[in-house]
């Protein structure tokens, strides 16, 4: 197998007799992210939608945007935004009902391309994945060239575009894939990584959410350089166990491996709303796309889940969870929605608005052995 290079990295040196062992060779990690995946599929399949602002989701008054085309994003339309707000921002917005069976089929088609280059593929959702190409199935010397070829294959075989990040760890590969969107790619080498992280605004760090970002800014941390200036003890004092992770990220360090297959204890999706929710109808409507996403990933594996957990975070950041475990696995989205409605009902009326909802499936039964890794950030 060929070992593709991340340009600018140090090649693995052959050990000299009697000398020190060779330094470990940097890993070669790709992060492939489809561009406006759901909306792009709808525009591909319906020529009348091409070049127009499209939102996948419910057009009803209490509907929620599941995905938005780049034409819609120019108006400020984003996923998880209430449909009313999206329509207000873009009066010409075209709503399209989700077709998750189609999205899932295209996702499987794309993943089959990935596995021609490496068996070490870690899907994050239907539209993105990490690939470890340190040892590739293709005789290609460059990870950058490999990313270019994969993107070309995706375009030729699906009619869709993808963006790619190329780097020596997962964090930086993820950051790199956002740099040239849509339909582009970006490389962060071991030589350029520290400077890239130093200039990165703290709000753009993958894994640092709005609440943590606000806390860091209160402490005077506004970018990677400011984060690196803080000691490990300081970060642990203010952020607990996560402080170690932030300390490493500030230095461009991320030792997490790309995991193609591992035992998974739960799968979940959650979303934060641009406007707080106050009524049961609003909450039920907002839960629907989360249920669809979680169910689609469950269907793509052999797992059967018996426990359902509802997460609710209020505007004052107070968080509550409610769970239900059945003797038999949940058999449909309708069954999950019915159970969620039962868990949700006693929480109303609310004193404060709901800013976040989450859905998690757990207590897995499996068919035929190990569970596949199913990570689903929304």
From TrEMBL:
Known role: Poorly processive, error-prone DNA polymerase involved in untargeted mutagenesis. Copies undamaged DNA at stalled replication forks, which arise in vivo from mismatched or misaligned primer ends. These misaligned primers can be extended by PolIV. Exhibits no 3'-5' exonuclease (proofreading) activity. May be involved in translesional synthesis, in conjunction with the beta clamp from PolIII.
Molecular function terms, GO-annotated: damaged DNA binding; DNA-directed DNA polymerase activity; magnesium ion binding
Any one cellular-component term (Gene Ontology): cytosol
Region (Disordered): 1-20
PANTHER family from the UniProt entry: DNA POLYMERASE KAPPA, DNA REPAIR POLYMERASE UMUC / TRANSFERASE FAMILY MEMBER
GO biological process, one term: DNA repair
Keywords: Cytoplasm, DNA damage, DNA repair, DNA replication, DNA-binding, DNA-directed DNA polymerase, Magnesium, Metal-binding, Mutator protein, Nucleotidyltransferase, Transferase
Co-factor(s): Mg(2+)
InterPro entries: DNA/RNA_pol_sf, DNA_pol_Y-fam_lit_finger_sf, DNA_pol_Y-fam_little_finger, DNA_polymerase-Y, DNApol_IV, Rev_trsase/Diguanyl_cyclase, UmuC
Family in the record: Belongs to the DNA polymerase type-Y family.
Site note Substrate discrimination, residues: 38
Name of this chain's protein: DNA polymerase IV
């Amino acid at each position: 197998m060929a070992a593709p290079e991340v340009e600018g990295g140090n090649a693995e040196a052959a050990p000299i007799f009697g000398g020190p062992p060779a330094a470990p060779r940097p890993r070669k990690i790709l992060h492939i992210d489809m561009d406006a995946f759901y909306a792009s599929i709808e525009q591909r399949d319906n020529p009348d939608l091409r070049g127009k602002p499209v939102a996948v989701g419910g057009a009803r008054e209490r509907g929620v945007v599941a995905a938005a085309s780049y034409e819609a994003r120019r108006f400020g339309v984003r996923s998880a935004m209430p449909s009313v707000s999206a329509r207000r921002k873009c009066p010409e917005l075209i709503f399209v009902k989700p077709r998750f069976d189609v999205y899932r089929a295209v996702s499987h088609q794309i993943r089959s391309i990935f596995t021609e280059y490496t068996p070490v593929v870690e899907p994050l959702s239907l539209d993105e994945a990490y690939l470890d190409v340190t040892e590739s199935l293709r005789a290609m010397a460059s990870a950058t060239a490999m990313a270019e070829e994969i993107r070309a294959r995706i375009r030729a075989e699906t009619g869709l575009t993808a963006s790619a990040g190329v780097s020596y760890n997962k964090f930086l590969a993820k950051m790199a894939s956002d740099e040239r969107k849509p339909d582009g790619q970006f490389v962060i080498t071991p030589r350029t990584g520290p400077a890239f992280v130093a200039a990165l605004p703290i709000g753009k760090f993958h894994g640092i959410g709005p609440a943590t970002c606000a806390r860091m800014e209160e402490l005077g941390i506004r970018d990677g350089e400011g984060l690196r200036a803080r000691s490990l003890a300081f970060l642990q004092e203010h952020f607990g166990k996560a402080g170690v992770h932030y300390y490493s990220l500030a230095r461009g360090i991320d030792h997490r491996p790309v995991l193609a297959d591992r035992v998974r204890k739960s799968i979940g999706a959650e979303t934060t709303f641009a406007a707080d929710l106050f009524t049961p109808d609003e909450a039920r409507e907002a839960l629907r796309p989360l249920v669809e996403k979680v169910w689609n990933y469950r269907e793509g594996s052999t797992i059967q889940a018996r426990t359902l957990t509802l997460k609710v975070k209020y505007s004052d950041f107070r968080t509550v969870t409610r769970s239900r475990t059945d003797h038999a696995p949940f058999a449909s989205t309708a069954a999950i929605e019915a159970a969620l409605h039962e868990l949700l009902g006693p929480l109303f009326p609310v004193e404060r608005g709901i800013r976040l909802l989450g859905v998690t499936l757990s207590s897995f039964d499996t068919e035929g052995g190990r569970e596949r890794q199913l990570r689903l950030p929304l």
